[in-house]
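Hi support team,

I've been running sequence recovery on a batch of backbones for a student project. Most finish fine, but this one hangs at about 90% for roughly twenty minutes before it completes. I'm not sure whether the input is malformed or the queue is just slow. I've pasted the structure tokens below so you can try to reproduce it. Let me know if you need the job ID as well.

Thanks,
M.K.
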């Protein structure tokens, strides 16, 4: 099987200026190349997804790991999940703080009987595993939050890309390895300025799902993704006989009709790659086995695409 990978760094309304677009493109392409090399060297889809999520979490430009947005009380709480499509096993951490890579908790929990932990339990696990304490705060995100305080809390979410007015954000990776196995991972700092305790879609099957048939990672407004149960819906439609492109198109069209604000990336067991969005911009890049490409300059009216 020819390996494939697709990643995303969020979805939103626009990327202002070519400088911002090229910076995002350079970052995404570099990460796609690193993940693809793992796959071509015989690495598993799960290993590739974990690496991709780590690299995206370490990029301050994106809203996950370092560079995560601040919640209403000025604290950072992150969530991440991992799904091994072969085992059909889901694991995740919800609203965890002071850790560099939340996807590492999801990785550890893959082999535990309790596979999704929230705030206090996730924090206890961080201490148990002796992960180094890490402050994911960046000056850009702090200034964003401080400016909002001056503006009397006018915003209900933060920017997906730290330097740009772009919209909504998570990061995600879907991979197909040489053995035909699929995995998906998703990580986020939340939407920013939310109520304490709010839970995103990123640590739910609504936002991250994989089986032997297909894998999907979502981005956008978490509540919209949850209400569409988007990731699981797309995978189930593939399982029921639709092509990946058909499953993506039908699901995105329903999201548009329901006035949702979201995007999704996916790969199926045949190696097909597809993405979709109900917003203007999906910050995604992929390797289709031949070359790296991205979705950054797709026409805002083009709701779905294939790699």
């Amino acid at each position: 099987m020819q390996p494939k990978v697709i990643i995303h760094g969020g979805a939103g309304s626009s990327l202002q200026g070519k400088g911002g677009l090229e910076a995002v493109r350079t970052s995404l392409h570099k990460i796609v190349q690193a993940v693809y090399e793992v796959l071509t060297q015989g690495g598993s889809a799960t290993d590739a997804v974990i690496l991709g999520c780590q690299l995206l979490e370490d990029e301050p430009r994106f809203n996950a790991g370092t560079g995560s947005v601040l919640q209403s009380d000025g604290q950072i709480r992150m969530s991440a999940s991992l799904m091994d499509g072969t085992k059909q096993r889901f694991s995740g951490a919800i609203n965890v703080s002071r850790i560099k890579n939340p996807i590492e908790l999801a990785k550890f929990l893959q082999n535990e009987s309790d596979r999704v932990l929230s705030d206090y339990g996730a924090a206890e696990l961080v201490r148990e595993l002796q992960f180094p304490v890490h402050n994911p705060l960046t000056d850009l995100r702090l200034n964003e939050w401080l400016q909002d305080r001056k503006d009397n809390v006018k915003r209900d979410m933060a920017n997906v890309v730290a330097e740009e007015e772009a919209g909504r954000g998570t990061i995600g990776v879907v991979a197909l390895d040489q053995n035909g196995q699929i995995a998906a991972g998703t990580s986020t700092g939340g939407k920013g300025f939310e109520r304490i305790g709010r839970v995103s879609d990123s640590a739910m099957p609504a936002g991250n799902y994989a089986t032997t048939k297909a894998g999907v990672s979502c981005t956008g407004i978490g509540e919209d993704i949850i209400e569409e149960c988007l990731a699981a819906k797309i995978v189930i439609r593939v399982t029921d006989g639709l092509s990946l492109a058909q499953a993506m198109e039908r699901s995105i069209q329903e999201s548009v009709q329901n006035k949702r604000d979201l995007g999704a990336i996916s790969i199926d067991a045949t190696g097909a790659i597809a993405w979709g969005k109900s917003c203007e911009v999906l910050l995604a890049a992929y390797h289709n086995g031949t070359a790296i490409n991205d979705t950054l300059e797709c026409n805002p009216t083009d709701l779905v695409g294939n790699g």
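--
Follow-up from support: It reproduced on our side and the slowdown came from queue contention, not your input. The chain has a mean pLDDT of 92. No action needed from you.
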